């Protein structure tokens, strides 16, 4: 069973714990209970060790997952029995469970060592159980109020069997008791027994599905109770294919849900955001809104200024205690305390946009599992972030108040990489694709100009100019606002010198335009290594890094589920580079060697040129990705093309006798 999701997206750090936030958190089951499993649980016997000629250090004997679902919530029974076979297995000598004290109730059933047929109880009704609020993500500006119960296993020895079992009862009152379940086959080696058992009564709208590699369950019914069962012996977990998009990396998984559709989630979330965005008549936010309105009547300008207001005047802090996992703070509360999580910042931005006459709505997204989300069963737990989708002149603009430092104009904003979004509407909504297009302008542009006109044996003054757009430019702008310029200069010099040791840096300058475009200019002297080519009897200068043949290839896959899945490729990406060498004697007698080619390698449009004109040797290259996936059948040819291109040397050849 996976952890239940909450809406959060940490982007900044806080220095201290918010006492105010903790004081407002509701209290419920802050300590676990102790006792036997409920009657609906079928308690298994301890299996014999599996047949495994390559066992791991801790061998899995039992992986038992049983759950009961109804219209109010769910109960999840989990039991793991492992045998320590090697000293390395002793490192897993603790057991812990984390829960939300408002929405969860934990009952610990068993923690015991079986040694030489004798059972040693380690729970002792909680005497050795440490219960604490860890706030393990505090440094990421997240306060979730979750509790952790932990037990250190004393006197654990090689050969011991560890038996650990508990039940987690989960209720999501804010969402009408809807719930979901995720079971995944993920372990090392062979498991003696693997069981998944789901129970639900008639009238509970439970649906389920399995992914490739998960056994087909048996579904039966006794009276008014439905049962889904998978029960395997000597089971191996399927391994995901390397390099595949996220949707292919979930083999051996079962998911179940009591949500009736994506629109069900959308409708249930909508009242929470509608209520939270009610702005009081005397709110101190109103003068800020009036100031934006007075500055421009253009809805694009207003929307962007609203985004900057939320980014610049409220900091990020996730508050997940009580109902905070899904329920946003009110607009007045977020504005008055000047901090909020993604939900609070979204409500703040929605309110400002509404008052400015800009159409907008909240949308739920997954920051790390968006690929293939449209094919999964609907569950609120699949989303961990919320932002705003504004509609202006028929175009969607995705506005994220948890970002910082956005400058320029609203049309400079790019769609986020989350793939799918669920609009939050009172009438409900279907999941929608977030469309990303190939870039029409490089994010990174480099120009290196080496002046060798003074002679091959003379120092060559060099200027390196790097232009950064998009996140690269905004990143430098943020750094300039946070750190002293001298510190950044020191860092940039060290960074550049680590990959450009042929250049002795004398000066560095950098700045960012109001549109967020960064420009870094480095001046220095190049150590040009002109080497004699005995085959032609002439000195040659090979451009640093060219012709190395080094390339990051698509790896070949081992057999398994989804082995023929496409490969994920970086998208959208666009970069270009130019190297110019000013030659002695106007280039008389010099020549150049290098590829003059354009074409496609994998999902990348590649262009390379080499020419000598007006006494300057000029080499260019550009790479622009045009897709995020490469078909499996195209991989070997793509690897060959990449190797050929990486082996192409770029050379300036001097006249004989130079």
Automatic annotation (TrEMBL):
Task: State the protein's name.
Answer: DUF3857 domain-containing protein
The answer to whether the entry has keyword Transcription is no
Which segment of the chain is annotated as a signal peptide? 1-28
Write down the superkingdom of origin: Bacteria
Protein's organism: Caulobacter segnis (strain ATCC 21756 / DSM 7131 / JCM 7823 / NBRC 15250 / LMG 17158 / TK0059) (Mycoplana segnis)
Q: Does the keyword Transcription apply?
A: no
Domain DUF3857 residues, every copy: 75-236
Q: Which UniProt keywords apply?
A: Signal
